[in-house]
Fold:
Amino acid sequence: LSPQMRRLRLKCSDIKPFATEGIHIRMLLPCAGAEPAWPDLQPDGRLLWPPGKPRMARRTYTIRAVNVPQSWIDVDVLLHSDADGPSPGSVWAEHAAPGSPVGVLSPARGLPARASQHIWVADACALPAAARMVEMLPPDQTPALLLWVANEHERAAFDLPASRVRPQWLCSGEPGASVPEIAKVLQWLECQSWNGSDTALWIAGGLPMIQAARAWVAAQPRLVGVQKMIHTYWR
Structure:
């Protein structure tokens, strides 16, 4: 989709559980070039890993699109590094090829709140979630949407037409982490109109941005009653 965002299509025999119960999935990511040692699922839902075998990395991704009759789901993976080096998700996505196996666990929630006004902020990691949630809103609802990516080229990773939503953009710094851009995020939030319980605020992205947003929200009396969903997507 863009220099840093790759879309991958996953297929399995029964996609129905992932089509109705939420917009996120948890994935078990095999190491490139290694034979996967899959865990068993215990009766209480916990994973039982084969003794003596390394556990696979677990990451959560948004179901960007789903097709039940054809048994596939699409996920968009941002190619980036964590504080400790290359992200396991990035490594997996860069090496994935037709036929590569990957484990998919039960879907998690993440549906948009019911409200007449939506105010959303997403950094690069959260672009797929923002796009999916826009598509799930009624056609007559359009969120106030601020998207933060590293540069203009990454705007292509948000592939909704302008006829559906016209986001505002930050295209600089390290998405979710850079101090000057975090200040701009808070300034944008300050300029929005807030209508109490009929407003839903959703913010998703890197820990530094989320910490700053939570502190800002806590200091705003006018946000009392606003539905708030503020999620750390990466650290």
